[in-house]
Amino acid sequence: MNTHRDNTIDLHSLGEHLYHIISASSPTYFISLRYNLRDENNVFDSLRKEELYDIDKVRGTHHHINNLLRESFGDLMTYWFIERDKDFIDKKGKQLRNKYSSHLILSTIQDDKIEEPTRTLKRVMKEGTIPIECRAYTDIEDKKIDCLDAVLRKASWVGTTYDDAVDIRYISNLWGLLVEHPDPAKDYETGYLLKQINKKIDIDELIDKKNSSY
After folding, report:
1. DSSP codes of every residue in the chain
2. 138 occurs within a structural domain
3. In the prediction, which pLDDT does 91 show?
4. Share of the chain above pLDDT 90, in %
5. Model pLDDT, residue 49
6. How many domains does the chain have?
7. b/e for 36-51, b at 16 or more Cβ within 10 A?
8. How high is the mean pLDDT of the chain?
């Protein structure tokens, strides 16, 4: 990958390179995960707070989520990106770095994976106050989103008690995610997912190659 003379990454070239790889994999969903600091009993988990500062623990959660997705939907193409949340000011006025969160680009879930679910997905569909299997859907795509959300929440770091832990969107502008951010008012050198490279995070932190389908 090309670098500038100051040894920073050529973000435009990197974004284009990733775009050409990922665009060939039927990317459908853009998922953001904001990990919950409370357990299923809504109790603050101090150990998890420490783990969310550990890049290896974050990658381990990606691996776990990949397994959950595979057991429910079969083989999917996954592309993981890591973001460091905004720094914050503590009670003493000291600026501290914040924990990690994750972004996932995911390929298409085929209709038959919902119409003829695996045993794992069948169990997921039976859970909850109003189980997915009891809901009426006019569009199978809506059912896919609910199933995907429910499967992701099986990961303990995500859980069911924090509604904003999972944000699933359809990808309408992959170029904007990787190469050029569509909002010119944003001071990004490249697309949304690579915005922290050369600033808060380096390329080996931001791109989880081990758990991605490169």
Report:
1. --B-TTS-B-HHHHHHHHHHHHGGG-EEEEEEE---SB-TTS-B-HHHHHHTT-HHHHHHHHHHHHHHHHHHH-S--EEEEEEEPPPEE-TTS-EE---EEEEEEEEPPPHHHHHS--HHHHHHHT-SSS-GGGS--S-HHHHHHHHHHHHHTTSTTT-SS-GGGEEEEE-S-HHHHHT--S-TTS--SS-GGGTTBTTTB-HHHHEE-TTS--
2. yes
3. 60
4. 68
5. 84
6. 1
7. beeeeeeeebeebeeb
8. 89
- The model carries a pTM of 0.89
Instruction: Let me know if residue 208 belongs to a domain.
Output: no
* Whole-number Å distance between alpha carbons of 99 and 82: 10
Give the range of the structural domain holding residue 150, as residue numbers without chain letter: 11-203
pLDDT at residue 92, as a whole number: 62
pLDDT in tens, 74-113: 999 999 999 987 765 556 665 556 789 999 999 999 999 9
Whether residue 61 is contained in a domain is answered as yes
- Pairwise CA distance, residues 118 & 140, whole Å: 16
Residues 6+ apart with CB under 8 A from 182: 173, 176
Residue 85 inside a domain? The answer is: yes
Positions of the chain with pLDDT lower than 50, given as ranges: 1-7
